[in-house]
Amino acid sequence: MKRVICILAIAVSQLLTGQSTRMSRSEYIARYSDLAIKEMAISGIPASITLAQACLESGNGNSYLAREANNHFGIKCHGWKGKTIRHTDDAPNECFRKYDHVEESFRDHSDFLRYWDRYAFLFELEPDDYKGWCYGLKKAGYATAPNYAQLLISIIEEHRLYQYDTVTMLPPSPAEAEASIRIHPKKGSPLYRVSLYREVYSRNKVAYIIATEYDTFKSLAKEYNLFRFELYRFNDLNRKAKITPGMVIYLEKKRKESAKHLDRHVVEEEETLWSISQRFGVRLKHLRKYNNLAPGAEPLPGSIINLRKRPR
Q1: Which terminus of the chain has a smaller tally of CB atoms within 10 A, N or C?
Q2: Would you list the domain boundaries of the chain?
């Protein structure tokens, strides 16, 4: 009898202990507010938004994914090559990312928002416009819940999360970081003569033109005093490639890495590694190296790829 009572007492004690270890929303915010502020300085995402989404998505850090996988935003695998965990969400037994540290989850969340084209417009908002961010996230399809924006706003205002949006030195928006500029080559430079009657642009500090329907590799090579094989090499193309109107044609070698503040990219449907290489002015072989992709292999839509060499 005493043994039964003892076992029951232990069970009750464990139950109570389990209940007491559940984090409250206030405790969660206190624990991770500094991390959200740090991410704001790196990505430009308001700390209030990161915290509100983390509270909502992780159940204040008490969800199965948060406890077992350090996944505080419910981020699914999307071509993830790291550790994984299975969990029933929108469908049974779905694949989710598993992290060694919570910080990795917060960073992935920042990367998905900053480097996914569908969210780029949000970074044009003022950093203290949390309502604009909330409604924008819903508009961009971040969540299917019809009241998702209102839920975030409620959390932010109830806990005054806007007080953490204090970072003033923010990175440029993705659109600003990626923007091309028209260049005006100096007299005597190889591109000067051509720039007099054709617009020449620079992306990632690499000169390029926009092809017309009349352009061929032969005509461009003659126009720019280049060999055709150089144009093929500059654009990571083989000799069978054809020019199409509107195509970006680089007139010099692309860079080893993307421009600053464009560290990664979320792959869209129908994008290829070559098209990403052309978009960001990065040599194809380096993109393969940074992402451990063999020749011919393509990244999956929704996966995050590196555009720069990641620090060890």
Answers
A1: C
A2: 22-169, 180-250, 264-306
CATH architecture of the region 22-169: Orthogonal Bundle (1.10)
Contact 260/293 with Cβ under 8 angstroms?
A: no
Whether the Cβ atoms of residue 249 and residue 211 lie closer than 8 Å to each other: yes
Interacting residues of 13 by C-beta distance below 8 A, sequence separation 6+: none
Fold of 180-250: Membrane-bound Lytic Murein Transglycosylase D; Chain A (3.10.350)
* Distance of alpha carbon 208 from alpha carbon 228, whole angstroms: 15
- The structure's pTM equals 0.86
Quote the tokens at residue 302. 């929704």
What confidence tens digit (pLDDT) does each residue in 149-173 have? Answer: 999 999 999 999 999 999 989 999 9
Q: Please give the biggest Cα pair distance in the chain.
A: 100
Q: Do the two domains 180-250 and 264-306 of this chain adopt the same fold?
A: yes
**306's torsion region: left (phi>0), alpha (psi -120 to 50) or beta?**
beta
Residue in this structure with the two tokens 């600003």, named with its chain if needed: 176
Residue 20 structure tokens: 């007491």
The token duo for 280 is: 């960001």
Q: How far is CA 236 from the centre of its chain?
A: 24
In DSSP terms, 96 is beta-bridged to 76, 85
Q: Is 45 exposed, middle or buried (0-12, 13-18, 19+ CB in 10 A)?
A: buried
In the predicted structure, residue 284 carries a pLDDT above the cut 70: yes
The CA-atom distances, in angstroms, between 62 and each of 12, 74, 87, 190, 280 are 20, 12, 15, 62, 40
264-306: CATH superfamily = LysM domain (3.10.350.10)
- How many CA atoms lie less than 13 Å away from 166 in the CB half-sphere? 10
